[in-house]
Amino acid sequence: xxxxxxxxxxxxxxxxxxxxxxxxxxxxxxxxxxxxxxxxxxxxxxxxxxxxxxxxxxxxxxxxxxxxxxxxxxxxxxxxxxxxxxxxxxxxxxxxxxxxxxxxxxxxxxxxxxxxxxxxxxxxxxxxxxxxxxxxxxxxxxxxxxxxxxxxxxxxxxxxxxxxxxxxxxxxxxxxxxxxxxxxxxxxxxxxxxxxxxxxxxxxxxxxxxxxxxxxxxxxxxxxxxxxxxxxxxxxxxxxxxxxxxxxxxxxxxxxxxxxxxxxxxxxxxxxxxxxxxxxxxxxxxxxxxxxxxxxxxxxxxxxxxxxxxxxxxxxxxxxxxxxxxxxxxxxxxxxxxxxxxxxxxxxxxxxxxxxxxxxxxxxxxxxxxxxxxxxxxxxxxxxxxxxxxxxxxxxxxxxxxxxxxxxxxxxxxxxxxxxxxxxxx
Amino acid sequence: xxxxxxxxxxxxxxxxxxxxxxxxxxxxxxxxxxxxxxxxxxxxxxxxxxxxxxxxxxxxxxxxxxxxxxxxxxxxxxxxxxxxxxxxxxxxxxxxxxxxxxxxxxxxxxxxxxxxxxxxxxxxxxxxxxxxxxxxxxxxxxxxxxxxxxxxxxxxxxxxxxxxxxxxxxxxxxxxxxxxxxxxxxxxxxxxxxxxxxxxxxxxxxxxxxxxxxxxxxxxxxxxxxxxxxxxxxxxxxxxxxxxxxxxxxxxxxxxxxxxxxxxxxxxxxxxxxxxxxxxxxxxxxxxxxxxxxxxxxxxxxxxxxxxxxxxxxxxxxxxxxxxxxxxxxxxxxxxxxxxxxxxxxxxxxxxxxxxxxxxxxxxxxxxxxxxxxxxxxxxxxxxxxxxxxxxxxxxxxxxxxxxxxxxxxxxxxxxxxxxxxxxxx
Lengths: 426, 426
What we know:
homodimer, alpha+beta, 15 helices, 17 strands, 39% helix, 20% strand
């Protein structure tokens, strides 16, 4: 049987041109996170099954994990998301860590799903988390960072919007106002989470099965509010609503434009406890959630230590690249190879010495030692987006200068090594 | 049962201070590779089992892989090494890729082993590969890069040595000179690979079982040579020896000091076909192989395409960090957070505005929104290796200047935002 050259289904090979784009994305992510004082951390891609069983939500654990038994009989999972791992790390050093703790990471995650547009089995995900801040400055900062990242990639206002809701508000409405049980309230939340995937009649009928006619009407009213003032009477004065109002006011004062209150927004994970938010692609051809997060004050505590107030979000690379493509925001990226050197009638060792000297000047040089014709060598440089080729023959060695051809303009000139190095640093 | 906060056995959590070191290592690796014209690529961490069954060597595949069946019934492996993946990628685009192809990668690999000093189950590994060059300039470049990486980390000459051998030379000696069969020759090679792990008597007795007395003496003679001239008569004129001599001469002319011919060096993987090399820690307390590689001209061809001459090496992070520690080469790394801002009697929003303005100047700022006392806030900054704290109160807002405390010197001064930004860029 012939060995396949294809990557595993739903995963990607990154050839240098693909890797360049990935590095660009990672570097934009890092830049914004570090500007806001976040430090990078990492965790192993394998974790014990128990870590996810606790809180991640049933679909991910039961249907989407890469779960197996290792050679020592342990049930392990290739992580489907980073949040349980980072909570574990904080719990392990609960007492020593200096709060507020601002952490980010860019891990690869795996989920066994049907690969489709915007969704692969292997994906990278920026994770940004703030530990130890219970007040709303945390929510405001988190949403500000999400917005700053979109801007860093050049996304214009209007190309996305940030939906904001509060799990606490929803719970308070269902449990305190409508006096529903916790179980019914959770079931309703999960139903609302699916609202865009099922028909109105289907939603209506499932909601009827969960509650009576009067609560149903009130719930539908609740979901249609576009501001906190439009919520059914009695809610606005509850602490959850007032707390959310502080966040929304803060976002205005911080100068965030593209956000709105969205009472339908639930987010899938079970572990959220407060404000949740989601960045949504507003392109009519591509309307969908791109990424989001929220407050999850309970996760660190499941490890048997004092809980830590926490808020965070995760942003995947696959949907982001789709967004950048659709909005013409993909930059032209050139090779890390600045110069391809073509030795012309000199020995390999002589050529290596010139290359070495150029490298000492800080230039990234590849030497084409192949026996190909010059034409073919130049084509090879063009193919990999290298801008300059440098010819080195006996004449150049004698003159102490290089013949440099700019493949963009086609022009050739003679330059010393230092002159070439400063041209490239300009 | 209490959920464990420990990482999976043999794997590591990277807290920000650990991640800093990892990023330093990655950045040194990248810098050298890119100077030599190598471009970064990547591949998925999951691969089909068949990919390794072909060539990686029995121990790794049968005893050390993380092997499991996915939810679709496919036998998959978390990669134990990158070479099969990169060969697959080159084979997939055999015709289109521009040769010579210089590629590097810094993947995470997994092997189910007993964790011990210098060996973990999860490790990162620099992979450097040159495709499409059959002559010895490839060997020289590869060993030069290995040497340049050691120098980039500050390793002095003498703290390591590079052992060089040739599989072809060994095969030629055993098969052409001693007229042994391919199977016996392979068995002898595997035995020699274990030579430092077993006693002399054990080696002697196992060798006796494989060959007669006369060849045994000749083999032991062969293994004791320190230069090609010292090899048993007849070998030095064979092509394999002459080809290796070109490499050794080239290394001298390139200015590489810390290398020597080592006929005992075999390297574990079955796929090597020519020159092999290994960088060895010479510290008496820590004498051992750190990393290595060699020529493996056959791997791309197993995918049913024309073979491509290839040489490469892999360098793990765990042994490297041990080496840097033992040689006092670990640098002092400071936090990516340049400034911790402490709001003093101003609102969160006012503080956020100042932070935002500082970020626009390119400063990495974290704001301490906690209710902790000033002392505790300063301690928290010290703890995470942040050098400057900035106090912002009503006075500072009015004066348009910040009170900046240097935690290294303990000195305080008043600076405008621009002055602080240029101080940090200096």
